[in-house]
Every structure is written in C-alpha cells, then in structure tokens.
Fold this protein.
Amino acid sequence: MQLADIAIAAQEEMVVSHEGIATVKAIDMNQGIVKLAHGPIASLKWPSMTMNFKIKDRALLQEIKVDHVVTFTFIQSGSDYIVTRIQSSK
Ligand SMILES: [Cu+2]
C-alpha cells in the first residue's frame, strides 16, 4: 500500500453520515439546494433549526415537495452539508 492510498483510505473513513427528520421549506432545483426545518441531529449535537443543504444529485429533489415531512441523510464536506438521501415519510 502506497502512502497516498493510506491517505485516501483515512479520508473515506472520516465521511460520517448523519440522519434527521425535517419539513421541506423550499426547493431550489437550479442551485441544487433544499431548505429544511430539521429536528435535532444527535450525531452533530445540533438543535432543531431551519437551514439550507446542498443536494448530491438533483434527482433526489424530484420525489419531494414543499411541506413534505422527510427523513434524510447527509454528510459534511468542508463547510457544506450535502444531502445524500431524502424521502417523504408520509
Ligand atoms: Cu441545522
């Protein structure tokens, strides 16, 4: 194993997913952003709040609408929070 491979493996291990429940407040299909009013996120010690998330794949936005209650999974990438899975829970 090369040093570069070890560095990549270490980076991949640091990608932690977080899960939450939220109400969709706004969807910006052009920018690939969804505004969510989410409940507490225990894994990040976040309280409930309303904030924007980037979306990994715009196709994820096709199944959701404003006011839907959703369950979602996201990762942190630098200062961005990126939704990797989002699903209406109605
Ligand atoms: Cu938040």
Q: What stands out?
A: The mean pLDDT is 90. The chain has one domain: 16-88.
